[in-house]
Amino acid sequence: MILDINFSNQGKISASTTSTGEGGNININAPENIDISGEGKISVETTGAGNAGTIEIETPNLTTTDGIDITASTTGDGNAGNINIITNNFNLEAGTTLTTETDSSGSAGDITINSETLTIGEGAKISATAKENATNTDTAENISINSNQLNIFGQLGIFAETQGEAPAGTLNLNTYNDNPDLNINFSNSGFISARTFSSGNGGNINLFAPESINITAYIPHDKM
């Protein structure tokens, strides 16, 4: 079974809370493929004291394209939700984003991706951000990716960052299903970063593989 989700006119799938109640979860699964496209958003959000829920997508093959935004966020005292992706092949294409963020006292959520192959295309990104008004210094948002082949083909990539006093999170890159090798391929100025733009501390980047880590980068001749 193939599940096609196509958005238009800024369509949205949302589970949110604006008060003390907990936000709901969004679970999307299909036994073969999931294709998500169009101008739209899948989100768990809180603007109050309640915590946002979790987005979980599980399928053998997942493709997101055309600017889809999958996000967990907080602008209140509650914590942002988590995003969990479980698949074999994950393609983020054409400016799509997978993000968690906080712009308040609540903490941003975590992103966890389990995918044998992960490809991040032109203008696509995976990010965890503490924005300018984020004040929670006790916890940070983390990104954990378990993959054997990580391809970053666009001008963005994977980053945890802070724009305020809250610290940036940690990026953990590990192999998928205990495979011995981790392969990372960069092109077109793609990058991995745990950075700070303000008084908050930058994060850490941890790479682990039982046997080898192979990192390659393609630099066009006109850039050399």
Describe it.
With 224 residues, the chain is mainly beta. 0% of the residues lie in helices and 52% in strands. It has no helices and 20 strands. The strands form two sheets. Strands 1, 3, 5, 6, 8, 9, 11, 12, 14, 15, 17, 18 and 20 form a 13-stranded parallel β-sheet that branches. The protein is globular, with a radius of gyration of 17 Å. The N and C termini lie far apart (46 Å).
Estimate percent helicity: under 10%
Assess the beta-strand content as a share of residues: over 45%
Shape: globular
* N-to-C order of helices and strands: EEEEEEEEEEEEEEEEEEEE
Low-confidence stretches: none
Helix-strand category: mainly beta
Mean pLDDT: 92
The rounded Rg comes to 17 Å
Major β-sheet annotation: 13 strands, parallel
Number of helical stretches of at least 4 residues = 0
How far is it from the N-terminal to the C-terminal residue, by CA? 46 Å
The total of beta strands comes to 20
List the topology elements:
Elements: E1 2-17, E2 26-29, E3 33-46, E4 55-58, E5 61-64, E6 69-74, E7 83-86, E8 89-92, E9 97-102, E10 111-114, E11 117-120, E12 125-130, E13 143-146, E14 149-152, E15 157-162, E16 171-174, E17 181-187, E18 191-196, E19 205-207, E20 212-218
Parallel strand pairs: 1-3, 2-4, 3-5, 3-6, 4-7, 5-8, 6-9, 7-10, 8-11, 9-12, 10-13, 11-14, 12-15, 13-16, 14-17, 15-18, 16-19, 17-20
